[in-house]
Design brief:
heterodimer; A: 319 residues; mainly alpha; two-stranded parallel ribbon; 4 strands; B: 55 residues; 22% strand
Chain lengths: 319, 55
């Protein structure tokens, strides 16, 4: 056998170790679990929309419009992670992220189609009127600041990751990757949004309505399980290289603490939901994300999430 | 290798040991649904399973 030329060898990225690894297996699962928005029938949801009360419409639309915007934002903000995976020479991460980006675009498509075919709104000015603005929320005790994690943290940490990818050392890229992933996968997708998915599913089942919305949320959640655990696993891999990155994760959660300890607006927008359930599950998801990353949870944050005296609602109606 | 999964819901520390990952996922999802009225995604269970010596 001829001796390999390293410049030629470097053009090939697959290895037996890589394709047996956990990230490549997530890529394979994403390919196996592919679904299409066009296979979902929105007809019954359109009839349900006509029969629910104006109050129910306002409550539900407050949630779905936020998801419509959120899925577009996460689609738009993923590129720094792809660039960093390339820079860190992790081809299995790049392959998985190709499915991740396509799936986020598909989730945005699902919400676009649901709003178009069920509610009859699509253009930005039509949907913006129903958007819940989080930045204007005030904690009456003055202890917590609520910031807009989706539109502030993701572009901010993403910008830092792009900068490190272009001109930083490998260690700077890794640290910036951990912070971006902590914000995107662990905080936004993995803790903050999880109760919101469940609130919509609980609402559709309680009302015995909107089967397409229920189906879409369940399909989206099955994708999100891979996205979230990709991010936390990538963090774990990098934390095993340098345990000092743990502090970078806690910095992110601390910066947006107010968003997690407050109640999500949907918890009060839809009547009759068990509010404690969603605070308890936030704790479970936070502990799980820490467990997946291999870091110790911030016990003070857990106490604050469960503190019944901290009950301000994150989000007020636009306009 | 047997697998252990531990629930981390607030106020719960229920744990289960099963012969493999698939049965751990089923047991964890049943626990979360019946005890906490919620759900847990497959990957979130698989990625935190601990190996237990079953010899």
């Amino acid at each position: 056998m001829a001796v390999s030329d390293p410049t030629v060898t470097s053009r090939f990225h697959f290895s037996r170790e890589m394709i047996a690894g956990p990230i490549y297996r997530k890529y394979e699962k994403a390919i196996r679990k592919m679904w299409s928005v066009e296979d979902i029938d929105f007809g019954r949801d359109a009839l349900d929309w006509e029969r629910i009360t104006p109050e129910q419409r306002t409550g539900l639309l407050g949630v779905t419009v936020r998801f419509l915007a959120g899925e577009q934002a996460v689609t738009d903000e993923l590129v720094p992670m792809l660039a960093a995976a390339h820079r860190l020479r992790r081809f299995d991460w790049t392959m998985f992220l190709s499915t991740f980006l396509m799936e986020e675009a598909k989730h945005a498509e699902f919400f676009m189609r649901w709003h178009e075919r069920v509610v009859g709104v699509l253009d930005p000015e039509e949907v913006a009127a129903h958007f819940l603005v989080r930045g204007t929320t005030v904690d009456p005790t003055g202890r917590f600041t609520v910031r807009d994690v989706m539109y502030e943290a993701l572009p901010d940490y993403g910008g830092r990751l792009m900068e490190a990818t272009h001109s930083g050392t490998d260690a700077e890229v890794e640290r910036a990757f951990v912070q971006f992933s902590a914000a995107y996968n662990a905080f936004v997708e993995g803790v903050l949004t999880m109760p919101s998915y469940e609130i919509v599913i609980d609402t559709t089942e309680r009302w015995d309505a909107f089967p397409a919305l229920n189906r879409g949320f369940r399909l989206i959640l099955s994708d999100e399980g891979r996205h979230i655990t990709f991010g936390t696993m990538a963090c774990r891999i990098l934390l095993e290289k340098d345990p000092s990155y743990e502090e970078a994760v806690h910095e992110v959660f601390d910066a947006y603490r107010g968003n997690i300890v407050g109640l999500v607006e949907y918890q009060k927008a839809v009547p009759d939901l068990d509010l404690d359930k969603y605070q308890n599950m936030k704790v479970r998801h936070y502990r799980n994300r820490c467990r997946e990353m291999g870091i110790a949870p911030d016990e003070t944050l857990i106490e604050q999430i469960l503190d019944p005296s901290i009950d301000f609602v994150v989000g007020v109606e636009a306009g | 290798m047997a697998k252990r999964w531990t629930c981390v819901e607030a106020g719960c520390s229920w744990a289960v040991v099963t012969p493999d990952s698939e049965s751990a996922v089923r047991a964890a999802q049943e626990h979360i649904a019946t005890v906490h009225g919620s759900f847990e995604l497959e990957e979130m269970i698989e990625d935190v399973l601990e190996d237990v010596d079953d010899s």
